Predict the 3D structure of the following.
Amino acid sequence: MASGACSHRDPMLKKRDDFEDMLEERRNSSDLRYALRCYNPVLYKGVTPCKANLLKSMVLQSDHIHYVINQVSKETRKAVVDVQEEVSAILEEMAHHLQISTVRFFAFTLSKIFKVLFRSICVNEEGIQRLQQAIQEHPVVLLPSHRSYMDFLLMSYILYTYDLALPVIAAGMDFMGMKFVGEMLRMSGAFFIRRSFGGDKLYWAVFSEYVKIIIKNGFAPVEFFLEGTRSRTCKSLTPKLGLLNIVMDPFLKGEVYDVNLVPVSISYERILEESLYARELLGVPKPKESTSGLFKARKVLSEDYGSIHVYFGQPVSVRSLVKGRVNRCQFSLEPRHIPRKPSEEIHSFVNDSAYRLVRAQEENMVLKPWVLLASLLLQDHHQKQAAGQKWGMALDELIEKAAWLRDVSRQYGAFLHWPDHMSPSEVVSSSLSLHRGLVRISEGRVQLALEQGGLVKPGSPHSTITPEEDVLNQAVIVLSCASYRNQALHVFLRPALLASAIHTAASNKKQEVYNSFSYLRNMFSNEFILCPGATVQDFEEACYLLVKTGALQVTQQEVVVTERGHRTLTFLTSMLDPFLQGYQVVCRFLCEEATEVLAEKQFIPAVRNFIIKHLLAGRLRYTEVLSSDLQKNCLAALLRLGAVHKVKGAEQGTLKVNKVMVNSLEDTLGGKLPTQKAAVARL
């Protein structure tokens, strides 16, 4: 059972590396012997591991820190010795204290836990070999996707298993507050950073120098999450650039020959935090990280979470990324230790690189059959709900549609793990069984188990559930399913944007369709990973995929839907419709209910109440527009487009709404007006 998830090769897997189930050996040998085995990883250029105290001394003695200490001392009129003490305190709070004994404890404990929770943990061994080579040649930065608390424990567990150098990991300060566990994480390689530094020049200097010294000396791989935080929606988040700037800096300043960036894609068949995420998106506060909370979470050990696939991507050389993009001579004009704000050229380069790396993560995410089933069941739920029907989809129909979508997704290049040694009905039944908390099968029909949302339970202190609470209960299940559907969005996104553009364009003229595509792509560039400046490339890719699968015919002048293409385009537009409606309803709220000046902290609760009211009145089709993530992304888009402004000099977080522009955007999203003329591109 453990190896079954990895042993049967899917045709689409052959163009990528093969997987091995690393838990198989753990099930057949001693965990204690595994934890206590000889561990002797090869490091960069054979350097010896650096003790934590030596690393701190190197930071304190660096020219950069001395320069900033003197600067801060002059600005604040504090004694230099006092500022030095502040630096020492920041380092004490931040620094890792890696100890092999703690690593061995985690190796033993996690082996026990993983064997209970997961059927298999599949790793691409060729990726491990590439990483081993990369670590010896240049400093390495590991960039895993971030969908679960489990991610950084899993990464260290894998590297220990394959005798690779353990990473030092950037972790949020909230973990440090966990009694006992926080220190255990520190001793397994975590260094703790504040969620935001504000304008704290001293903190930024200590943090950046700490990371740069590790990079420059190759003491250990550095690991951090490009997205900055866990994705509660399971789609990739807009990358954060701070740490990426820091790890590229030693190369840009000529202090190392190269730095290898390694994107890692971690795919969970079933996510441990699935319902927790849905609740957070509905406004239930995130539970504070605590040791007691960890012990209360033991009930997860009685559940089956399927398999995990971890894909170590091709190392990306910073030297090759920079070629032709950045003139490094600019860094020779002043001493390296003097801090400087990145130029517009550097910012643009780092931003483009970040998007490229997140796209690499997405492309190597392994999709399980349930991802396709969740997409189909959500669309069926919304259609039936709009028609006032409640009986779900026939199981035979779901199996047929799943097999059709499997073939379409493979043609689009999805990294799909569909066990071909099983019949489609067996695959569907197995997936439905694993996710039985989200679906219900009755009389041969499958539907979402909306009654299991459990945000507010009958029999609790609330004697009866109000209509508003019932909507939130159902939304827990809908958003949980949507989080799985979202895992496939990167596969269908560009064709879906084109399908929606065809639907909203004034005619089937290619330029009109392109203008509509360009408008939608720009609107959703805070929602999805869409590389800056790649609109024409994305349009051509979408056309190519839909022509290749027989859904479209594209000439120099026109884009025409074929007879067989209607099914595909209906599926694709339905994929994007919840986001379109979400952005429309936020615009409607800002036009109808919001005052022209709005406090930013009131925005999400007020929008949520507005949406619940419209859902209860039957004016909205998609429950998932309640997602706070979607609402925040929409606000970010409106700020970027200038339809909403942050008021300067006013109380912190005050928004000013341009209602005329917001109303125009809502109309355009609804296809009521021709899209704005996009810059004419050569198509």
Q: What stands out?
A: The longest helix spans residues 565-592.
